[in-house]
Amino acid sequence: MSVQDAVAPSSGATEVHGPATVDRAHVDLALSSSKLRHHHRLTPYLFVLPYVALLGLFTLWPAIYGFYISLHDWDFMLGTKPFVGMQNYKNLFDETSTTYQPFWNGMKNTLTFTVVSVPFLVLIPLGLAVMLNRKFPLRTVFRALIFAPFVLGISVIGLLFTYLFDARYGLFNKILGWFGVPEIGWLTTQPWAWIGLVLVTVWWTIGFNAIIFLAGMQGIPVDQYEAADIDGAGKLNQFRFITVPGLRNVFIFIVTTTILASANMFGQAYLITNGGPGDSTRTAIMVMTEEGLRQFRMGSASAMSYMLAAFLAVVSVANFFVMREKK
Amino acid sequence: MSVQSNNPANTGVSQVTAPPASAADPDALEGTTANRPRRHRAYNREHNSPLFYVALSLIAMVFIVPVVWMFLTSFRVSEDTRAIPIQLIPRRFTLGAYRMILDPNSEAAGANPVPTWFLNSMIVATLGTVWNIVVASMAAYPLARMQFKGRNLLFATLIATMFIPGFIFLMPNYLMMDRLHWLDTIWALVIPGAAGAFGVFFLRQFFLSIPHELEESALIDGANQWTIFTRIIVPLSEPALVTLAVLSFLGHWNDFIWPLFVLFSPEKLTLAPGLATLKGAYVTDYPVVMAGATVAAVPVLILYVILQRYVIEGVASSGLKG
Fold first, then answer.
1. CA-to-CA distance for B290 and B241, rounded, in angstroms?
2. Which residues, in sequence order, are CB contacts of B225 under 8 Å at separation 6+?
3. What share of chain A is helix, strand, coil (3-state, %, to 5)?
């Protein structure tokens, strides 16, 4: 998603919502046609000053400083932090280095989780949004209910699902037992650990994407459906030829943010599987934070973070173009 | 909130990674249903089959049962949760788990001072939200309503930062906290939280939608910009401010990865990282673990029940731009 796209005047689905579509040209006109714009030259700068200071100190500067750190053998606990150039990055590609194996194992695990989770995290909310877009009693309550897990933090979710997944005392195996399924080692065997982590993530975040899909659906002009009705198109065809194309921008947004969110997975694996069994669910962020914020080898950890960011940038851009082309 | 909660610079509302388009319309969802009866007559004319209601009920169960189970377990006797076969209906109720984590004289109090964590979370989330709202609304006002050199540059920078993944900031901001002597203090959670771009973007969109007539007449009456901001813009923006406040509060309350690393003393933790140590200490003493989770869940669930509409509309507006 490019910067231009994010700020460009909205189109399609968003137009119906009115006030936000006041574009800059209109505002400029209103301001310049008003002879009353008498504020001191410095007034706007004073207003934005606190934010600009925070933005500079905690966003812009760190983004650059992090790269500077990655060029050093930066041990937080040691006084000297020698410059090593690209060595931390080279190590990530050197099989004999200590960071190679954990880093690529983490990257592989993150990729696995992303590939497995994203289809469910996109399609299940889409299905729910279709249901929510119909009229039924207690619709608002239902909508609030499916979003509710999202307001719980990952720590609550992590504790709760550790218990639910408990092989002997957990509710999941109890319920599955009613259907004759033998005891599953959710946290101790693969592929169950991955399935469990995907399940948790779906349960936790489903409402978020569903609400965004729903908002997108409600922005599709209703006369398109009416015309299709008159032409005798069935519900399935209406969904395929009106709803899906009408949600194109929403799809791009959801797929992009969901891929990024899955690639950022940390809390679920940290709390529920603790990276196990073995290191099979230890994600890239877990490896990075262990290296930088527990072992305090911040140079190599920063190099890892920039590598992961580079991967994500490529994936986001590729995803944007792939989804945009698909007509 | 969430999924991408590892941006220390965006602790407040870090879940929402993209700009809201119709953020200005707090009624985005409600409005469409309320104002367009025609659509619903036309589009929802069909009857829902019984199967539809069966599916709805099953889905509702999937979301209700785990939370109810957490709540019930917190009142159970520890041995009962380890009975084989599992007792679905608790036979005995006890407040033992709550006594364990809340009583300052219990054995848990030293290493796992849950009441202190609760208080810390309350302070961090409240201060963080107020700070976020003040900073974001002040920045959003001139971005929406004034002409000044650098405005477009600032706005473009702000949007661009939304595309930087949060984990990039972990290491350098940890060092920044160290330099400021904020490690292991609430300031590490409160102050950087307002550096996120979402709040500014969200409020700017809303401020743009406020008609100019009011401030023009205020200017004629000799009001200065600060007066216009505090007496006209802020009161008119209440829905947007409430939405941002509740999202920000939830974000701070639930933030996990950043406090997990910048706080270390048991008495300095907030609930989210605290629960991780509680889990480590009580492993399969599930009533205690579930009591801890319940203590952390209840405030946000209450907040959500009261302000549900603002939360959902805030989230809905974040995706409309697409």
1. 33
2. A39, A40, A43, A47, B146
3. 70, 0, 30
Q: What is the pLDDT of residue B110?
A: 75
Query: In this predicted structure, what is the pLDDT of residue A234?
Result: 83
Q: Which helix (H) or strand (E) holds A207?
A: helix A192-218
Between chain A and chain B, how many beta carbons pairs sit less than 8 Å apart? Answer: 416
Confidence at residue B108, expressed as pLDDT on a 0 to 100 scale: 67
Q: Taking residues A302-310, what's their average pLDDT?
A: 96
Q: Comparing A278 with A40, which gets the higher pLDDT?
A: A278
Alpha helices by DSSP H, chain B? 28-35, 37-43, 50-73, 78-81, 96-102, 114-145, 151-161, 170-179, 187-190, 198-208, 213-220, 225-228, 234-236, 238-254, 257-262, 271-282, 286-319
Q: Minimal Cα–Cα distance from A159 to chain B, Å?
A: 7
Ramachandran assignment for A85, one of left (phi > 0), alpha (psi -120 to 50 degrees), beta (any other):
left
d(CA B85, CA A188): 21
Decide if B319 and A76 are in contact by the 8 Å CB cutoff: no
CA–CA separation, A237 and A21 (whole Å): 31
Specify which residues A297 forms β-bridges with.
Answer: A75
Give the Å distances, CA to CA, from A129 to A234, A272, B39.
19, 29, 17
Long-range CB contacts (within 8 A, 24+) of A230-237: A235/B46
Q: What's the rounded Cα separation, in Å, for the pair A266 and A275?
A: 10
A57 Cα distance to chain centroid? 25
Facing B257 at nearest CB: one of A31, A249, A266 = A266
Enter the pTM of the model. Answer: 0.85
Gap from B110 CA to chain A (nearest CA, Å): 21
Structure tokens given for B220: 């004629």
| pLDDT score, position B46 | 57
* A132-162 per-position pLDDT tens digit: 998 888 999 999 999 999 999 999 999 999 9
